[in-house]
Amino acid sequence: RPEVHFKLHVYCFPVQVEKYLELFHLSQEKLKEVSARLKRDLIRGLGKHSHHRAAVKMLPTFVRATPDGTENGDYLALDLGGTNFRVLHVRVVEEQQRVLKMDSQICAIPQEIMLGTGEQLFDHIAACLSEFLDSQDLKGKTLPLGFTFSFPCEQKEIDKSILIRWTKGFNCSGVEGRDVVQLLKEAIHRRGDYDIGSVAMVNDTVGTMMSCGYRDQSCEIGMIIGTGTNACYMEEMKNVKRVEGEAGRMCINTEWGGFGDDGSLRDIQTEFDVVVDQTSINPGVHTIIRFQLLRYKDLLLPPFSNEQLFTQRTSEDTGLENGQNILTKLGVKCDPVDVRVVRLVCDTISSRSARLCAAALGTIANRIRVNRGLDHLKTTVGVDGTVYRKHPNFSEELQDTVRLLVPKCSITFLVSEDGSGKGAAMVTAVAQRLALHCLLTSVEETL
């Protein structure tokens, strides 16, 4: 086999491998170029007349502040994003600076409801919410609710969100183009056995930022790195041209996963990225690594079928022993060098991913710094996602790269605790605090 000439001992890799992996190495200068392109896209997405053609959508969330530590009370959270949904009772305790999950319940959504009418869906949700309130002895209370609705929506206000289209196997009639908050309230009204208070619509990225913001009031960025990636941050209102008003700030859901969809990153795409983009039905689940191994299989490893690589997932643990086990399950008879080659491929690709995320995060942190006219910014990022949490060195690589790219920003990373639950409740709590402040200000002005 070709690699025999290069297997001098277990730490040597075939020269051909290093050659191909050079495609995935991004220099600091190239990362700065990527950051500059993202900066232009952020501005385009914020523009009143340019946002519709922007790859990075920069969606207003109508969340106007982060927690200040004075929030308290009991809240409900509703997390709908798949074949199951969660209902939670959350308590915010000011004295302890803690957000507590008192209890929760998972409710299944039957297939016939997923494909039925919108009225059937929201009646089912209202019924499950009623059952949960009974179990918590909360029926007599009118609690505010944070609503995480993980489908493509156009948010008009914090309590008004229009469904653009169904995804994830849902196709309920009579919902697309309508306000999902109103549909929920109508279903609760039809029951008549309980009521809810104000409702705040919450994106999962915003929930991540807010769940961390109560513990650390300097948290003004939320980031998710899992199957997909996204981020939000607090932008100056004067720059959010799509929404009226100049004062204060608003959280913007960047939807930075769309960065490069317009071809702006074509120069750093490899042939493997192109194949993944063209053929994968589940992008982001280690498929780039599979395509890499397909390219190398004749060069590196004993014969095995393409189907095995397409149907088996690689491990999150990069240890050699686990790597050996994974390859054995794939039906591959391999020696230590083969295992090290596979590990090198995985490390290289995950390193590129971490460095690209760092470039994007650095762009946002530096934008906040410049917006505020600061020589140096100290901020916190609330972060969630299985890749960030479980990959053995992704978080370290990301943090090291951010420090290199934006030395004028000191960034602390705080792992989120249940952004779609506690974070959703926190958004509601902050919205209530701001509404009360506005009311009191109005009364004082009247007097």
Could you characterize the architecture of this molecule?
By secondary structure, the chain is of the alpha/beta class. The chain has 2 domains: 15-58 and 215-415, Hexokinase, domain 1, CATH 3.40.367; 73-211 and 419-446, 2-Layer Sandwich (Nucleotidyltransferase, domain 5). Helices cover 43% and strands 19% of the residues. The chain has a 6-stranded mixed sheet, sandwiched between helices. Helix 6 packs across helix 14 (419-446), helix 7 (271-279) crosses helix 8 and helix 10 crosses helix 11. The relative contact order is 0.17.
Which consecutive residue ranges, at least 5 long each, have pLDDT under 50? Answer: 1-13, 281-306, 308-318
Number of strands: 13
Give the SSE string. HHEEEEHHEEEHEHEEEHHHHHEHHEH
Return the average pLDDT rounded to an integer. Answer: 84
CATH architecture of the largest domain: 3-Layer(aba) Sandwich
Main sheet attributes: strand count, strand direction, barrel closure: 6 strands, mixed
CATH class designation of the largest domain? Alpha Beta
Assign the CATH topology of the largest domain.
Hexokinase, domain 1
Class from secondary-structure proportions = alpha/beta
Count of helical segments?
A: 14
User: What sort of overall outline do the alpha carbons produce when their principal axes are compared?
Assistant: globular
